[in-house]
Design brief:
By secondary structure, this protein is of the alpha/beta class. The chain has helices at residues 16-23, 76-88, 93-96, 108-121, 133-141, 156-171, 179-197, 204-213, 246-250, 285-293, 312-322, 391-404; strands at residues 3-8, 29-32, 41-45, 48-52, 65-68, 73-74, 97-100, 104-105, 200-202, 218-225, 259-267, 270-272, 306-308, 310-311, 326-330, 340-349, 352-354, 366-374, 408-412, 420-422. The structure holds inosinic acid.
Length: 428
């Protein structure tokens, strides 16, 4: 059998959690492949809003296995809090969740290094979520990291102290007080590591290979978005992992030829949280309106998200890098009430009109060029089929599909799992 991949095509917060939850019943295993508690995957059903950071979004469906893959970085404390919150909703996390021994651990001092590094960058800061993501991936590639499998070893504490010692040396170069909170953070961390030992830790690549051999269906769940990818995002204002499709191979141990569908999720407009270039950003009342109507505030940090119009060159780029086979358009309901909707179709770059994403998308170098399409007034939040949709929305869908050259298979018209319209048969 094959693996399908679901990932974000913009700067994150596209609504991956909701769609994974909607699609979960079609799969046997939901496997998260990268990122860590910088993510906030929001799911809404039965009047309750759930936010997941590390745990895959299939966790609310009994009988489905959820895997945290080797490409993920885990903060045991945040992870433990997620488990506690899920238990309150009667989710049997222990039965449903598997953790790769090769996933890396976020230490308290990784979080301190993140904070110290950001503070030192001043106005050039990345706008990190400060969850320790960058320093943890640096230790991974620097071959210093601690992995989940290490917690089963007798010399785990020694390994922890060695790495902490390295971090303290680094921290001593910053004008940053890391000592005040460290002992308390470590106490909490060790308690959470103890709890993690009670979970099911596995050699996840073998588990997935076996599952494939048995004909099981796997959905690989991405975090963040393609424009935050360490290689293909708006570097250096990116996260530290491979958020694109290739990350599902390295983050799970799955071969590229096992990948079948690639679901690419995008909002009907654009948002970004944190620093970095954002060509179609709106600084006016329209931007405010999108933020207010779309509740555009970070699920992990609560920060207001920057809002702007849909950016076709950026979307096309993400579709190409990921090999997207099916598009999923989110938050179409937020665009209701605009007389006209702008779409960036080109950039003006060094005096030329271009359609691709150049090396730098810095606002001083590129200027977005827009087309305008007619908006719709009707409230979409109760819509349950495309036939009943306003003609202008149907036209907008067709317009985007024509520009990108990939069909939109699912349309989302609200945060609830029920507010989802399948536009074509998915044959999963
Ligand atoms: P970090 O991954 O926490 O280091 O943050 C790096 C950049 O990625 C910052 O601009 C963050 O705001 C952004 N970022 C990280 N995770 C997410 C996410 O899940 N959604 C949206 N933006 C994110």
């Amino acid at each position: 059998m094959t693996v399908d991949v679901l990932l974000g095509l913009q700067w994150g917060d596209e609504g991956k959690g909701k769609i994974v939850d909607v699609l979960t019943r079609k799969y046997d295993i939901i496997a998260r492949f990268q990122g860590g508690p910088n993510a906030g995957h929001t799911l809404e059903f039965d009047g309750i809003k759930h936010v997941l950071h590390t745990i895959p979004s299939g966790i609310f469906h009994a009988g489905i296995k959820n895997l945290i893959g080797n490409g993920v970085v885990i903060d045991p404390v945040i992870f433990q809090k997620e488990i506690t919150a899920l238990k309150e909703h009667k989710v049997d996390v222990k039965a449903a969740l598997l953790i790769s021994r090769k996933a890396h651990l976020i230490l308290p001092t990784h979080r301190m290094l993140d904070a110290a590094s950001e503070a030192a960058k001043g106005k050039n800061k990345i706008g990190s979520t400060l969850k320790g993501i960058g320093p943890t991936y640096m230790d991974k590639t620097g071959r210093n990291g601690l992995r989940v499998g290490d917690i089963e070893l007798t010399d785990f504490e020694e390994r922890y102290n060695t790495l902490k010692g390295k971090h303290e040396q680094l921290l001593s170069h910053y004008d940053f007080d890391y000592k005040a909170d460290l002992a308390k953070m470590e106490e909490e961390w060790y308690a959470a590591v103890d709890a993690m030992r009670e979970m099911t830790l596995i050699d996840s690549e073998h588990f997935l290979h076996q599952a494939l051999a048995e004909g099981k269906k796997i959905l690989a769940e991405g975090a963040q978005g393609s424009l935050l990818d360490i290689d293909f995002g708006s570097y250096p204002f990116v996260t530290s992992s491979t958020t694109t499709c290739a990350g599902s191979c390295t983050g799970l141990g799955i071969a590229p030829n096992k990948i079948n569908k690639v679901f690419g999720i995008f909002k009907a407009y654009c948002t970004r949280v944190g620093s970095g270039p954002f060509p179609t950003e709106l600084f006016d009342n329209t931007g405010e309106e999108l933020r207010a109507k779309g509740h555009e505030f970070g699920a992990t940090t609560g920060r207001p998200r920057r809002c702007g119009w849909l950016d076709i060159p950026a979307l096309k780029y993400a579709v190409a890098v990921n090999g997207v086979t099916n598009l999923i358009m989110m938050k179409a309901d937020v665009l209701s009430g605009f007389d006209s909707i702008k779409v960036c179709t080109h950039y003006r770059y060094q005096g030329e009109l271009i359609e691709h994403l150049p090396y730098s998308i810095d606002e001083n170098l590129i200027e977005p060029v827009y087309e305008e399409v007619k908006g719709w007034q009707a409230d979409l939040t109760g819509l349950d089929n495309l036939e009943d949709a306003p003609q202008e929305l149907k036209d907008y869908i067709k317009y985007v599909e024509d520009k990108i050259g990939v069909p939109i298979s699912i349309l989302s018209v609200g945060p609830n799992r029920t507010q989802t319209i399948q536009l074509e048969e998915l044959a999963i």
